[in-house]
Design brief:
Blueprint: E1 12-18, E2 28-31, E3 37-39, E4 45-48, E5 56-60, E6 67-70, E7 78-82, H1 102-111, E8 128-130, E9 140-143, E10 146-147, E11 154-158, E12 161-162, E13 164-165, E14 174-175, E15 185-192, E16 206-212, E17 220-226, E18 230-241, E19 245-256, E20 266-278, E21 283-298, E22 302-303, H2 304-308, E23 322-340, E24 343-360, E25 375-395, E26 400-423, E27 427-452, E28 455-472, E29 480-499, E30 502-512, H3 517-522, E31 531-544, E32 547-558, E33 561-565, E34 570-574, E35 577-591, E36 594-607, E37 623-631, E38 636-646, E39 649-650, E40 658-659, E41 662-672, E42 676-683, E43 691-699, E44 708-715, E45 720-728
Length: 729
Amino acid sequence: MLAQLSLYSQNLTGSVVSDNNETLINAYIYNQNTGNHTHTNINGLFSLSNTSVGDTISVTHLGFDKYITVVNSLESPLNIVMIQKVVSLNQVVIEQNLDALNRINDVDVKTNPVNSSQEILRKVPGLFIGQHAGGGKAEQIFLRGFDVDHGTDVAITVDGMPVNMVSHAHGQGYADLHFIIPETVDKVEFGKGSYYADKGNFNTAGYVNFKTKQKLKNNLLKVEAGQFNSQRFLGMLDVVSNEKHQAYFATEYTTTDGAFESPQNFNRINALGKYTVKVGENEEVGITLSHFTSRWDASGQVPQRAVESGLITRFGAIDDTEGGQTSRSNIKINHQKILNENASINTNVFYSNYNFELFSNFTFFLEDSVNSDQIKQKENRSLYGLNTEYFKSFNGYKVNGNYQIGLSLRADESNNNELSKTLNRSEILSRTQLGNIFETNTAAYVNANFYLGKWQINPALRIDHFNFNYNDALLLEYETQAEANLIVSPKLNFIFSQSPKLQYYLKMGKGFHSNDTRVVVAQNGKKTLPASYGADLGFIWKPKSNMVVNVAYWKLYLEQEFVYVGDAGIVEPSGETERQGVDLSVRYQPLKWLFWNVDANYTHAIALKEKKGENYIPLAPPFTLVSGLSVVCEKGIYGGVNARYMMDRPANENNSIVAEGYTVIDANVGYNFKRLSIGIQIQNLLDTEWNETQFATESRIKNEATSVEEIHFTPGTPFFAKGVIEFRF
């Protein structure tokens, strides 16, 4: 264990570890006499101010029994060992911080862990996804009335490393999470809105950060097999685990043909290695290496008329030569150092090599009646950068608090970023776009938290600067097209903790998403960084020890922007938009082994300055609902049933074309032995006919005299069952 913190008058210092000597980060230490609280730092250490002999101290951490003790002395550190137990809502404390809602998500991850990288984003309350290209393409994301496409308005990171790709060959903000092995995920951190100083580009509707495990509880082998020639193999090995060194390795292989008549021939290989070493008494260094590669074929989106006429079935295709391949290799080094009991610094450096090639055909024979309209999007990218943050806490006579100062750098070098018209995935007919992109984003922020009794005030300021450079290979003469811009994003948040069971909050902030480099240089720098302005007003409440409720009213305004449409290689302007709505989340544990969850989200989304009736925002969901029951036991029967509902939504600006809603129910059941688990997972239990993704598209099928604009869709998975065997050792 690291050296304990220095003793200061009226300060209680100590450490918190699990019963297997694992450091517990972010354990909640609460003085029941004074109301003061604190959390353990990255090394499991804490310092609780204004503490006296005789005070009662409680310590809570999700997945552990509550620990209560009376302070007998302030002269020696308090070393706490917590006993693991099945997760319980009783362990959830509504903390006085900006990310209190993450405690709800922690329960979800512990009680109903994800089993595929496609579904990992669904752990964010109110977030929906859709796949429409054979399983290998990044998922389409819906959140707070946004059709986020593949990530334009949600900032996504893994252990602080960015996932969203700027100026991507397919679309701005493209976020492919398929390099994550879901069993390595320890926490899913999220925040809705743009209220967080350390989150920059794409943080308008919200952010998601996936934190991977630092160590394994045990070694693991897992085999999954099911319909549609689907298999998955997983191995996780604890290489070393002691007080100084922690290292593990994980790998998975996934393959499936899918439910489509033309097999997807999908396969993906993932590998991850993570090593952490404690250097000295208050310092830690870690390195993470990962690689994934994926290939697939796809049937694309099919026109409604082709299915209704009997030309194809729902799982057929007009062009089954779509598909692609992609890979990503990552290296991340993180360094954490405690400078003293009140100060620390955290730095991570990362590099990714990323390759992407995608073949699509959205309009069939609309433009080329002979060869069809197939396109290829391709790029090779190097992504590198760093983030560093200095943390300092302070104790005053009437005010306690802390502040953070952060700096970051990100550079994207995308070579041979290409959009071409192709034939049968082999012959290039013509090139629409081809060039090299070099884009940099430097940023600085300061964030402060002032604790005034039951109040927390959180002002923050972030500054981002961008350089955009583009070399168009289709120009006859070499030229570097360049633009630069800067944006200032203030934030101000108020939290009032009436009690450990009730908290009110008001969050306000400015965010932004950058536009594609090719848009920026084409528009001479106009609207390069369109801003968002938003606010949340809500509360978190524990009416009972086994229930947590969150309700929020929110509003968000987004400036006019220019959008690069990667599928067509053109620039399209869009106007100002306004969204407002209500979020409701409930977590209830009626029995120690039974959990119920519900997330309901209503949104009213309109395009400003457009005529009424023509101001709908295409594909913005007005209402979504997710609910489920989970049975959680360390030994014995486990299982659950989960339902998700998305309401009908407009597919175009005047709502003359409607994307149909759906209700889908998934289920799982199994049995836990001491070292072995056997189970069955079922997607679409009732075999519902539903459309996973839908678009209003103008297309022409071969031999049609004229084109038609209507819904084109990718069918949702039919009844799909697979068996799972897991062995722990």
